[in-house]
Amino acid sequence: MELLLIVIYLGIVLLVIEISAVLMMLTGLDNEIARFQVTSLLTGTGFTTQESELIIRHPVRRRIGIFLILFGVFSLAVIITLVSNLLEKRFRLPELLVITGILVFLLLVLKLKPMQERLSKKLHAPLEEDEGVEELPVSELLYNDEEDWIIDIPVIEKSEFEHCHIDDLCTANEDINLLFVQRGSLRIRRRGENSDTRLEAGDVLYVYGNKKQISEKFSKELEHRHENLVDENKTVSLL
Prior knowledge:
There is one protein chain. This protein is α+β, with helices and mostly antiparallel strands. It has helices spanning 2-26, 31-43, 52-56, 59-90, 93-111, 113-123, 138-142, 211-217, 219-238, and strands at residues 148-154, 176-183, 186-188, 204-210. A 4-stranded antiparallel β-sheet has the order 1-4-2-3. Helix 1 crosses helix 2 (31-43) and helix 2 crosses helix 4.
């Protein structure tokens, strides 16, 4: 009976992993990253990879992560209890000696050099190649010190920057760089065929530079952005 319960509960754990991975993917995570991070959270492994920052910085992903951590602790206690009952009722010294003997035999086989060479050819796989700087996180690539900042800034109605030419937004004396303007699904760069573009309300500016200068120049826009983020967090907390 305990063995059946263990199998059923392991099935439940696998279902929780799949459901959580799907939810993580719906928040924008890659399939492989989502599945690995979900498994790490559930088992309490605690891999301190840069990918884990993708979970910490997202409110919905954090809530999923908290559930997985708590569920993982509970599951470990359940499985330990079931396995203990199973060993107590069904296994005695002879059975344990047989299992120990099998494991020792398996270890000795794996220690054999011909077996290691054969398995090495089948199991060896090259590491994933680093594609270059485009694979690095923004914070690692652009942040040289505490004063560096990259942020998305919405252009609000009646903003002083509304109708401003994108080439006039940042002056040469300012440590502020306009990376691009997001207008719906369109990304507008400062130079090129869209160089005559003027800003409109609803545009989102992606700027990089000195944090203090950005905060002073776009103070009203950043205040509006903060209010929107607070409202979004309140909405998420109600779900």
